[in-house]
Amino acid sequence: MRLSKLAGKEIINMHDGGRLGVVAETDLVVHPETGELESIIIPNHGNFFSIFKDEKYLVIPWQAIKKIGSEVIIVDLNSPRNNRDRLTS
């Protein structure tokens, strides 16, 4: 799949149905040697206190992506391997 095909797709967590963001609002981490996607980084806009602190980001490992549809990307962030609390500053 081409990177341009991911643009504009909403990212949805299959565990709770929550909307995490849109690929246009994200950064993609690409392995420098293989060119494979390693993770998607989404700004955490849902935290009220982020106005007063450094902005936080949610890192979604590529292994957490379960399905890429025509309009959405379904991810599983409830499994122990893909803990939803993976926020970094």
Automatic annotation (TrEMBL):
Residues 1-76 form the PRC-barrel domain. Gene3D superfamilies: PRC-barrel domain (2.30.30.240). SUPFAM superfamilies: PRC-barrel domain. InterPro entries: PRC-brl_dom, PRC_barrel-like_sf, Spore_YlmC/YmxH. It comes from Anoxybacter fermentans. This is YlmC/YmxH family sporulation protein. Pfam families: PRC. PANTHER family: SPORULATION PROTEIN YLMC-RELATED.
